[in-house]
Amino acid sequence: MSNTIQFYQDNPHPCSYLEDQDARNIYPDPNLEMTNQLYSHLIQHGFRRSGDISYRPYCQDCHQCLPVRINAKLFKANRSQRRCLNRNKDVSIAIKPAEFNPEHYQLYCDYLMHRHSGGGMDNPTEESYSKFLLSKWSDTRFIELRENNKLIAVAVTDFISNGASAFYTFFDPTLEKRSLGTLSILKQIELVQTQGLSWLYLGYWIKECNKMNYKQHFSPIESYVNQQWSPLDTSKNFE
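-> structure tokens emitted (239 positions)
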């Protein structure tokens, strides 16, 4: 990466994805002014953001966190994804500014209570919600999905120079048959395609983490390994 950027590593902390594992991240120089243009560069090298902070996993003895992205220009929905789209023909889409919205916040709280109880993110506050999802420098939009004007999902999406990043999605946990997580990704791919962009970044894929298995079903998908993007090989172990 650019020699003009210095990076700093944090201390070991419990891994959020793998039990009995410690994790470490690297961060760009905190004195460096972060911009969406700079982030567009960093995300191509495996970085993500949390609020205003950009980071990348950097563990000495574990390399299982693989940055992944979908090639939107070549993407074709498989049979299961086409069925998902057909089931949700009555769902409307709206693009909203990235700002605090009480209706969004209530759905976020319901989602965490049902899907991530005891995971450390439940019982959020308005402050923690805003600190996590919003950023002063990113080009972020909240993609609303509604059924008969009822809010059922929100996909928080960062737009960058060559595509978009599916930053976080939360949805009505009682509507399992709608497969709203899959639907949200499909709609974000459509947005990227409509704008003539190339990639939808999906954050990290970990082979041993079942919650991330859904990502490998979007094809073609690439992973960032050894400082280059190449087709994701789900058969390999990245110890």
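The chain has five helices and 14 strands.
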